[in-house]
Amino acid sequence: MHRPRLSVLFCLLLVGSALGQFRAGTLRVRVTFSDGRPCNQQVRVQLMNSASRSPVSEAFTNDSGMTEFNNVELGNYHLIVSGEGIEEADSGIFEIDNRRGSQFIYVPVKQTKDANRQANALHGSRTVAAADLNIPARAAKEFDKATKLLERQQWKKAMIQLHRALAVYPRYAAAYNNLGVVYAKLGDRASERTALQKAVELNDHFAPAFVNLARMSIVDRDFPAAETLLDKANSIDPSDFQALLLLANVELLDHHYEQAIANSRKVHALAQDSHASDSHALVHYIAARAFEHESRLPDAAAEFQIFLAEESEGARAEAVRKELASLKTHAR
């Protein structure tokens, strides 16, 4: 499933997407709270076939709210998330189809009233602004409806629901962030920027909005601005390996090769913890290109080889083989 920018949306295509048909897929799941924060407690995720009440499989999330199901057969499914301190949540029906080898699903959850009171007593998470601690139930309900519409890529309907959430609670930073997503999908860059800037104005520790603003800077090829925004996002949420992956790539584009190499190492460690195998390979590509720019050709070749060991098939692998062959030719 295309990853909607429920809390953050970005696409990093370094070599290209593999084409083909798949008989089974990998399903990656991230559980977040309604304000976009990762659910950093271990919760149970049950993969349910739409035609049965019994779970096909189940797993538990890590500290970043991530888990993964491998070799999921084609068909229609939904996810049920449950755990201490949260209300049980259902993702709604989605399809594992033969066009994509892996899909990403976000499932928003709500804390129970007791858990909310406890969080307020502890002054909440570092990423939560005071305004976000007071989100009315009506606004949160509209936000959750919009989230489901985003998952279905129904952008205009999602926009209506987000405006309803903001009408109830105008200081809803996560709603402004997701509204920026919708405007991006509708091609309205001016409104996209306005919405994202409003999100960080309301909550200057809301990392997803900084990542989304960075994406706009990348499109504009303003890599120094993108790097600054991603540095901010990483300082807020160091556990978000995908934002760190994007930062490493921007550092490569901005000719900050040592930083790109260092952050590639960090991404690899974080991605291993989150079982994100595709990110494992990508970090080696970034590191290889950075080593190549620094004329450290043996190191670059080694990184390309590791990439191929972790991703041996597909269009990206073929492109890397060509780059590796060219590198070896120039090294002679």
Gap between N and C termini:
44 Å
Number of helices: 12
CATH superfamily of one domain: Immunoglobulins
Radius of gyration from the alpha-carbon trace, in angstroms: 20 Å
User: Helical percent range?
Assistant: 40-55%
Count of individual beta strands = 8
**Class by alpha and beta content:** alpha+beta
CATH architecture classification name of one domain: Sandwich
Structural notes for this entry:
The chain has 332 residues and is α+β, with helices and mostly antiparallel strands. Among the domains are: 1-127, Immunoglobulin-like, CATH 2.60.40; 240-332, Tetratricopeptide repeat domain (Serine Threonine Protein Phosphatase 5, Tetratricopeptide repeat, Alpha Horseshoe). The chain has helices spanning 113-121, 137-151, 155-168, 173-185, 189-202, 207-219, 223-236, 241-253, 257-274, 277-293, 297-310, 315-331, and strands at residues 24-33, 44-49, 55-60, 66-73, 75-82, 89-90, 94-96, 102-109. The strands form two sheets. Strands 2, 3, 5, 6 and 7 form a five-stranded antiparallel beta sheet that branches. A three-stranded mixed beta sheet has the order 4-1-8. Strand 2 (44-49) and strand 3 form a beta hairpin. The termini are far apart.
